[in-house]
């Protein structure tokens, strides 16, 4: 079934429609869904990263290969970007772009990183005509100029951001520069100007302007009389030819001249074809040369390129065809060669671009008509003189030159034998196969009905044979073995050997033999219809090996095979539906199918190039198998390959290494090297960045080391592309979000990665690409993304909280411990006080009681004395007890209570001694808080001082003053008594006072002079 | 100075120097960590551990070493100035020149073999930013690297110490007469990394603090009543942890970030010095009672002088060989410093045994 399907497909494709000759254009319009804003595309520019900037009728856009992004200004900029028709995009400093809209007569500076647009004022010294056209140009020094028609040249003052008339060019008086008439001759440091009065050359070194009347170096070009007066365009190409276009007034046609580098010799041959083709009004405005030296001239209604092979200009006719080889335009505004060598064209009908190989004629897609070349092509052969022979079904052997232009041949100069029947005679034109015997130079032509033509191009003789061994069957293939024997196969399945001028039937397989292949060992390999693949010993005709669908592990995908090749490692490649790699030593068959990367399971033609790569035609077009890495690379329109699907019948490798595939009336001829350039894809560029489906200016983001986002900006889309428009469809992207993805994610055909609800953290988005050959981009592109968490979810905050908790726990623990210690201290103190104050007194009372008891009957006086003492001790004990209880009692914590008790005590003690006293307390004292210890110590110091005054001072008046001074509680007990010598005083009471003052971190001072009273001053620092 | 205080000085000098291998052995992407450095890398156990140790918890060492130096120098200031400077020249500047030359020679040697040369390039240690072979930098380049910007960059410490010793009379006067102004000034020097000629402000504050403690007869051997072991360790470790997290999580471009990190570092350093000095008496006693420890501590200077550039080169070399091992960075950080520490001790022991006189000159008479 598979074989039948392939056969039907072959027949179908054999008669399918064909394309026209021309470049393989890719057309981008507003209808493509890529987002082109307008089909009026006026300017193009490729930036350092590889983005194509596009100036359209609706403003500025940027193209990354898959989509156009419309540029607009950011809020930070006050001025709005020009949204009407842009005229030019010129790169300025630091990645900025100068945008011009000469419809609006506006020029501005756009910064892609900040999206800020700043208008550049134009300040001419005198008025510019409203009809004047503008054009901006940039020289090799980075200076930017504005040519204004009928005015002159303005210079861009970068510092002042203004176009002013400070250019260095001293034009002759009344000479006016043409709008497109500027060319900078960089090596010679000259500017050439096409003016309305002739040619001017400004020499930067001498700062002189040279022209016909001022020609100090006698330049031939300036005194050449052939140059029209009104020049419009000037250009010097890579061959240093000088191109001058102008408008002579006489016949109203644009004149186009080409001079040699001296400027004295006109090169009329070099302009051949320049005027051929365009029929309507044309205006040749611009020149363009690629890095490879491909030369283009374009403008209004014209697009011509110089064809190096035919040595003439080729007019690319404007056509509305939709077959990828035509271009439709009225105006070509700009040509641009991108980094890959593709040629981009800005036209009034959108953007066209053509692949490198197509652009430089390394790939030729040719469709013949009945008058232009062979049709129904069955086989191809190259003669030593470079001529190409085509075996054609209708027209016999047809010959073309290398450029595929028809040439005459002598194959049929001698007619077939007269005695041949009309059928046989007709068969001589129904050619199927070609072979040239190198030893004789004879070309064997296999024809219908078993007819053979043997033609010698040198002697121009043709022999006609009709050997019976071929049994009147069409001769499908002719080949020669290592020993010079010729082998012929027929459609009916006969394999015939020609040796010693004798034909011998070797095999009759009974089905069509499509190909006879002679391997390096000399074996014959035979591809058949429905019978598989045979390996035959040419010596004895024995079948050495046979491969078919029924070979077990080594089965073929299909029994019908169309082509055979041999790799450099001697592996036999057999195209039978899928691709088969056969190791004839081990008889193992490896099938390479669609599932393995083959574009289609219908392999039709195979051809090894000089470097050992296997070129394959399948129903899906052209592809290449690289035996080194076992990878398949498909080639299509973007590579300049248009007609591969039609060229399925014949294949050939020319002596200069070109591969030709042919079929029907189409030829695909290409230099394999142009398609085999195995270069690394450019590093991946982040083309766009979306947060929650909102675009964020990616250029400004990329300026920072990382993208910082808030915790709620955590759903991201990252768009990426390797900005190679040549390799674009052959790239596979692998990305990884470090921190999320554990391994690389293959991006298949999607050019973006989505990440939703990313948790806060630091991420690195990494991406690289790999082309179909397995070459990886140099670097892994990285985008650092930092999603900040809420501060309470940061580690530092959590650790701070733990730290504070540990601190608080410690403090609480300390507090608790201190409290326990305080309670313990209180208990100890109460116990000590009770022991000190009560215990000893009670002991004394007990002793006194015993003594009184023992003396009660013997000595009443003594007993009474003891009782008095007991009474005194009891009272003292009651006082002490009272003090202890008072000091412990919490209700006495306030200073009101303290002062009340002090007043009460003073009253009791001093009134009993009839001492007048004054008690002065300031109001702020009542706000003071003393703890229990301090309160007791304070009160006891006071008590001691008052007691002393009452007992010893013999004072008339005592002043008690309690004040608050500088956050210190100050107690003064002052009497007007007899005083005493402090130094000689018994230190017990005073010592106690000092000790208690120390407990409170206070200070007690006693000042006393004999006869002048005593002052006790207690100062306690307070923590208010 | 009592015996235990002397032991404490020796113990902490050795520990501070030994820990240098961890401070200088980190392998973060940020190759030069300042006290206020933020980290752009992702927070992982590896990066956390490295930053926490190298730029957090172990930052107390240099201040402590300067304090010890200031204290000891102030103790002996009754000797004639010229005599002291002469002695310090022998004990500081001559070793400085010798070990700076050793660092240069070691680097040159590593540059001679492809793998080790790659390690030298990866370490990117040359303070003048060159990656050229030292065979190509000329006499001027050698001289600059010998004196001004040694490849063994840690030698700045002994060079600075010598300058402080020269300035000692002035420092003592300032510390005694105008302590508040002087300490405020040197505090600013410390934080601004002020440097003029060879006078580096980085250690002046702590050197002066050592002098001040000595001149005030502060009882260093006695734990102060206000000292809380718990709180000092809590602040020392806790603040270092918080600082480490902040270094990863705070916005580096925020102007306040460096100040926050610096403040945390100050707290960590001060509390660290207190915690280490007053909280480790038992460890000091135990270690100093062990003969092997005392023996090892005698090679403090060799460790100090030799560990850089060895540690960086060895780290990069380990990366070259171990980069396929999981967590190789942490593994390297944990193991290479220990290896270098042992290497330095063994080297010092052999050096002392085989060439005692050279050893004595090159270490300034230390370790005998």
Account of the 3D structure:
The complex is a heterodimer of chains A (1024) and B (368). Chain A is of the alpha+beta class and 1024 residues long. Helix content of chain A is 18%, strand content 37%. In chain A, strand 51 and strand 52 form a beta hairpin. The longest helix of chain A has 61 residues. Chain A starts with a helix and ends with a strand. The N terminus of chain A is likely disordered. Chain B has one domain. In chain B, strands 1-2 form a two-stranded antiparallel sheet. Chain B is globular, with a radius of gyration of 20 Å. At the A-B interface, strand 64 and helix 7 of A face helix 12 of B.
Explain the layout of strands and helices.
The complex is a heterodimer of chains A (1024) and B (368).
Chain A: H1 2-14, E1 25-28, E2 41-46, E3 52-56, E4 59-63, E5 68-70, E6 88-91, E7 97-101, E8 106-111, E9 116-119, E10 122-123, E11 134-138, E12 144-148, E13 152-157, E14 162-164, E15 177-185, E16 190-195, E17 198-203, E18 208-210, H2 220-223, E19 231-236, E20 242-246, E21 255-259, E22 283-289, E23 295-300, E24 302-307, E25 312-315, E26 332-337, E27 343-347, E28 350-354, H3 356-359, E29 363-367, E30 377-382, E31 388-392, E32 396-400, E33 406-407, H4 422-427, E34 431-436, E35 443-447, E36 452-456, E37 461-465, E38 475-480, E39 486-490, E40 494-499, E41 502-508, E42 513-518, E43 524-528, E44 533-536, E45 543-547, E46 563-566, E47 572-576, E48 578-583, E49 588-592, E50 603-608, E51 614-618, E52 621-626, E53 631-635, E54 650-653, E55 659-663, E56 666-670, H5 672-675, E57 684-691, E58 694-696, H6 698-703, E59 707-709, E60 716-722, E61 731-738, E62 745-746, E63 752-755, E64 761-771, E65 781-787, H7 795-855, H8 860-888, H9 895-912, E66 916-921, H10 932-953, E67 957-965, E68 968-975, H11 987-999, E69 1003-1008, ...
Parallel strand pairs in A: 10-14, 59-65, 66-67
Antiparallel strand pairs in A: 1-28, 2-3, 3-4, 4-5, 6-7, 7-8, 8-9, 11-12, 12-13, 13-14, 15-16, 16-17, 17-18, 19-20, 20-21, 22-23, 23-24, 24-25, 26-27, 27-28, 29-56, 30-31, 31-32, 32-33, 34-35, 35-36, 36-37, 38-39, 39-40, 40-41, 42-43, 43-44, 44-45, 46-47, 47-48, 48-49, 50-51, 51-52, 52-53, 54-55, ...
Chain B: H1 3-18, H2 20-23, H3 45-54, H4 61-75, H5 81-110, H6 114-123, H7 138-148, H8 156-166, H9 168-177, H10 179-192, E1 195-196, E2 199-200, H11 204-215, H12 229-249, H13 256-279, H14 281-288, H15 291-297, H16 300-322, H17 328-354, H18 356-362
Antiparallel strand pairs in B: 1-2
């Amino acid at each position: 079934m598979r074989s039948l399907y392939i056969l039907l497909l072959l027949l179908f494709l054999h008669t399918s429609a064909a394309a026209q000759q021309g470049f393989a254009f890719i057309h981008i319009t507003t209808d493509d869904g890529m987002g082109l804003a307008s089909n009026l595309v006026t300017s193009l520019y490729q930036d350092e990263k590889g983005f194509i900037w596009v100036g359209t009728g609706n403003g500025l856009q940027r193209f990354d290969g898959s989509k156009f992004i419309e540029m607009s200004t950011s809020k930070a900029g006050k001025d709005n970007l020009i949204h009407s028709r842009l005229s030019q995009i010129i790169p300025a400093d630091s990645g900025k772009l100068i945008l011009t809209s000469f419809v609006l007569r506006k020029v501005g500076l756009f910064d892609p990183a900040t999206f800020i647009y700043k208008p550049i004022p134009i300040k001419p010294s005198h008025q510019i005509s409203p009809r004047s056209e503008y054009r901006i140009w940039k020289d090799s020094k980075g200076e930017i100029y504005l040519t204004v028609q009928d005015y002159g040249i303005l210079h861009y003052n970068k510092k002042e951001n203004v176009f002013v008339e400070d250019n260095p060019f001293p034009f002759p008086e009344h000479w006016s520069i043409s709008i497109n008439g500027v060319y900078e001759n960089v090596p010679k440091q000259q500017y050439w100007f096409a003016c309305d009065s002739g040619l001017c050359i400004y020499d930067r070194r001498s700062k002189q302007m040279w022209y016909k009347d001022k020609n100090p170096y006698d330049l031939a070009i300036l005194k050449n009389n052939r140059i029209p007066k009104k020049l419009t365009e000037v250009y010097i190409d890579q061959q240093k030819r000088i191109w001058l276009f102008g408008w002579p007034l006489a016949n109203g046609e644009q004149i186009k001249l080409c001079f040699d580098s001296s400027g004295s010799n006109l090169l009329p041959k070099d302009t051949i074809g320049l005027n051929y083709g365009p029929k309507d009004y044309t205006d040749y405005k611009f020149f363009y040369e690629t890095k490879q030296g491909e030369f283009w001239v374009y403008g209004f209604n014209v697009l011509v390129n110089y064809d190096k092979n035919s040595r003439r200009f080729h007019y690319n006719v404007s056509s509305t065809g939709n077959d990828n080889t035509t271009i439709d335009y009225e105006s070509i505004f700009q040509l641009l060669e991108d980094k890959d060598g593709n040629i981009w064209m800005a036209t009034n009908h959108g953007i066209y671009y053509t692949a490198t190989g197509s652009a430089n004629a390394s790939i030729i897609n040719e469709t013949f008509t009945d008058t232009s070349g062979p049709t129904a092509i069955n086989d191809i052969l190259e003669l030593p003189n470079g001529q190409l022979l085509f075996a054609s079904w209708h027209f016999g052997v047809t010959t073309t030159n290398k450029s595929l232009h028809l040439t005459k041949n002598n194959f049929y100069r001698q007619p077939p034998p007269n005695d041949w029947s009309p059928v046989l005679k007709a068969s001589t034109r129904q050619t199927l196969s070609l072979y040239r015997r190198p030893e004789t130079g004879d070309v064997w032509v296999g024809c219908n009905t078993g007819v053979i033509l043997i033609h010698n191009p040198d002697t121009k003789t043709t022999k006609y044979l009709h050997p019976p061994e071929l049994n009147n069957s069409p001769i499908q293939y002719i080949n020669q073995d290592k020993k010079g024997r010729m082998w012929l196969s027929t459609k009916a399945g006969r394999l015939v050997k020609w040796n010693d001028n004798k034909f011998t039937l070797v095999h009759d397989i009974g089905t069509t033999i499509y190909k006879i292949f002679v391997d390096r060992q000399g074996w014959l390999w035979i591809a058949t219809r429905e019978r598989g693949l045979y390996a035959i010993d040419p010596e004895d005709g024995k079948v050495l090996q046979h491969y078919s669908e029924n070979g077990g592990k080594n089965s073929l995908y299909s029994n019908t095979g169309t082509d055979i090749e041999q790799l450099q490692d001697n592996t036999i490649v057999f195209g039978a539906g899928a691709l088969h790699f056969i190791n004839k030593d081990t008889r193992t068959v490896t099938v390479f199918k669609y599932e393995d990367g083959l574009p289609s399971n219908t392999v039709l033609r195979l051809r090894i190039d000089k470097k050992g790569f296997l070129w394959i035609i399948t129903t899906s077009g052209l592809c290449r198998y690289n035996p080194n890495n076992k990878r398949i690379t498909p080639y299509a329109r973007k590579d300049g390959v248009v007609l591969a699907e039609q060229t399925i019948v014949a294949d050939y490798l020319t002596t200069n290494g070109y591969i030709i595939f042919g079929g029907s009336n189409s030829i695909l001829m290409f230099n394999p090297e142009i398609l085999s350039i195995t270069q690394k894809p450019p590093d991946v560029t982040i083309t766009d960045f979306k947060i929650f489906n909102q675009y964020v200016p990616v250029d400004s983001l990329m300026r920072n080391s990382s993208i910082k986002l808030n915790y709620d900006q955590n759903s991201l889309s990252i768009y990426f592309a390797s900005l190679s428009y040549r390799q674009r469809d052959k790239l596979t992207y692998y990305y990884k979000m470090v921190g999320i993805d554990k391994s690389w994610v293959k991006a298949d055909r999607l050019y973006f990665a989505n990440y939703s609800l990313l948790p806060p953290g630091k991420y690195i988005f990494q991406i690289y690409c790999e082309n179909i050959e397995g070459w990886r981009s140099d670097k892994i592109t990285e985008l650092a993304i930092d999603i900040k968490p809420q501060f309470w979810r940061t580690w530092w905050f959590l650790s701070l909280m733990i730290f504070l908790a540990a601190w608080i726990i410690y403090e609480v623990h300390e507090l608790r411990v201190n409290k326990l210690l305080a309670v313990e201290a209180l208990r100890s103190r109460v116990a000590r006080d009770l022991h000190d104050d009560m215990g000893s007194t009670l002991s004394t009372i007990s002793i006194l009681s015993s003594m009184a008891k023992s003396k009660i009957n013997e000595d009443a006086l003594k007993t009474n004395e003891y009782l008095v003492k007991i009474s005194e001790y009891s009272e003292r004990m009651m006082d002490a007890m009272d003090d202890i209880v008072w000091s412990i009692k919490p209700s006495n914590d306030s200073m009101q209570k303290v002062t009340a008790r002090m007043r009460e005590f003073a009253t009791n003690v001093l009134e009993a001694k009839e001492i007048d006293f004054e008690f002065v307390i300031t109001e702020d004292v009542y706000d003071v808080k003393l703890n229990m210890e301090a309160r007791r110590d304070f009160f006891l110091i006071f008590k001691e001082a008052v007691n002393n005054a009452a007992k010893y001072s013999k004072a008339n008046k005592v002043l008690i003053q309690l004040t608050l001074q500088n956050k210190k509680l100050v107690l003064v007990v002052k009497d007007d008594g007899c005083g005493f010598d402090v130094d000689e005083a018994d230190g017990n009471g005073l010592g106690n006072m000092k000790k208690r003052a120390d407990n409170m971190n206070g200070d007690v001072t006693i000042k006393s002079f004999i006869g002048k009273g005593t002052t006790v001053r207690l100062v306690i620092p307070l923590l208010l | 100075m009592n015996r235990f205080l002397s032991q404490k000085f020796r113990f902490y000098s050795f520990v501070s120097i030994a820990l240098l291998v961890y401070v200088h052995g980190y392998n973060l992407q940020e190759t030069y960590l300042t006290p206020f450095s933020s980290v752009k890398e992702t927070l992982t156990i590896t990066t956390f551990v490295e930053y926490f140790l190298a730029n957090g918890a172990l930052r107390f060492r240099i201040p402590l070493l300067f304090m010890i130096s200031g204290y000891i120098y102030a103790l002996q200031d009754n000797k004639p100035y010229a005599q002291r400077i002469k002695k310090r020249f022998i004990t500081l500047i001559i070793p400085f020149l010798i070990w700076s030359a050793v660092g240069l020679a070691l680097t040159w040697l590593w540059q001679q073999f492809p793998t080790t040369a790659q390690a030298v390039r990866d370490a990117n240690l040359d303070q003048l930013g060159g990656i050229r072979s030292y065979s190509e930098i000329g006499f001027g380049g050698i001289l600059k690297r010998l004196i001004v910007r040694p490849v063994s960059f840690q030698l700045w410490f002994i060079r600075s110490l010598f300058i402080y010793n020269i300035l000692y009379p002035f420092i003592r006067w300032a510390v005694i007469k105008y302590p508040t102004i002087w300490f405020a000034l040197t505090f600013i020097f410390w934080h601004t990394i002020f440097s003029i000629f060879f006078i580096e402000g980085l250690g002046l504050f702590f050197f002066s603090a050592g002098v001040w403690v000595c001149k005030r007869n502060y009882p260093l051997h006695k734990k102060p009543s206000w000292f809380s072991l718990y709180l000092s360790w809590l602040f020392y470790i806790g603040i270092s942890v918080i600082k480490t997290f902040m270094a990863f999580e705070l916005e580096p471009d925020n102007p306040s970030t460096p100040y926050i990190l610096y403040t945390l570092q100050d707290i960590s350093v001060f509390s660290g010095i207190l915690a280490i000095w007053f909280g480790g008496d038992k460890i000091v006693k135990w270690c100093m009672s062990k003969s092997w420890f005392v023996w090892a501590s005698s090679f403090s200077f060799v460790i100090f002088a030799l560990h850089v550039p060895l540690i960086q080169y060895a780290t990069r070399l380990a990366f070259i060989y171990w980069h396929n091992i999981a967590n190789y960075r942490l593994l390297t950080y944990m193991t290479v410093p220990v290896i270098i520490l042992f290497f330095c001790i063994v080297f010092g022991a052999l050096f002392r045994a085989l060439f005692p006189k050279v050893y004595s000159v090159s270490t300034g008479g230390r370790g005998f």
